[in-house]
Design brief:
This protein is an alpha/beta fold. It is 31% helix and 26% strand.
Length: 236
């Protein structure tokens, strides 16, 4: 799906939630605002959509994915075998630079290669043991399976959901709010839909103890929609 299709799927799931009470007649794709809703009472509502993804954490996740995908490419080029591989990195800072990246890629490749060569004559489902020391300074745990008959290598692991950064959260709202003055038509209400929790650390935030009453915005309504939990919090 492209960006617009993803955004629309979020909006459709949001308005289908049992706790959303408005009666929507029509959704119209748009650019600014992102969508226009026509309600049963003939109100026109603007919708700004944004995904609450921490850019710094996203860069870390993308770096890990890049390392794993590069190791996968080397493995498949050498052996032509399809493996299902889940890797959890240790909670360390990955160093930048090609030399360090190549070192990480080779380490992941050699780890998978070692397991594969020792078991390639069999159907296998192998995972590192729980409650044991990390496999290495880079890798905490690994799970490898050759029975799925398709190839998928990815980063996987539990993570601590951290408290939302107050200034960053307010900045996201302010940035979307600036679009309102550029609308070509007047709406009865302007809403902001903020979507979070897609199964990654960068999209997961805790709002425990957060005082939403301190949020000042020109939006008439601001919604937080947790995608995986399928829950709605009305910020304003």
């Amino acid at each position: 799906m492209n960006k617009k299709q993803i955004e629309r799927s979020h909006l459709e799931r949001f308005i289908s939630n049992k706790n959303f009470s408005e009666d929507i007649v029509k959704i119209e794709d748009n650019e600014r605002p992102d969508f226009i809703l026509k309600l049963k009472d003939n109100r026109l509502v603007s919708i700004e959509h944004t995904r609450l993804i921490n850019p710094d954490l996203k860069k870390i996740e993308e770096h890990k994915d890049k390392i794993i995908k590069a190791a996968q490419k080397i493995f498949e080029s050498k052996y032509g075998e399809k493996l299902y591989v889940l890797i959890t990195f240790n909670n360390i800072t990955l160093q930048s630079g090609k030399k360090n990246e190549d070192k990480y890629i080779n380490h992941v490749f050699e780890l998978v290669e070692d397991v594969y060569l020792k078991n390639k004559g069999f159907e296998f489902h192998i995972s590192s043991k729980m409650n044991r020391p990390a496999i290495s300074s880079l890798i905490d745990s690994i799970w490898i399976d050759n029975s799925w008959e398709f190839s998928n290598w990815q980063h996987f692991g539990a993570y601590l959901v951290e408290q939302i950064d107050n200034d960053w959260f307010r900045g996201v709202i302010d940035k979307k709010e600036r679009n309102i003055k550029h609308y070509n038509e007047v709406f009865q209400e302007n809403w902001l839909l903020m979507v979070s929790d897609f199964g990654s650390k960068s999209s997961s935030n805790s709002f425990s103890g957060f005082d939403f009453s301190e949020i000042i915005t020109k939006f008439d309504r601001v919604y937080l929609f947790s995608f995986r939990a399928d829950t709605i919090t009305q910020v304003k």
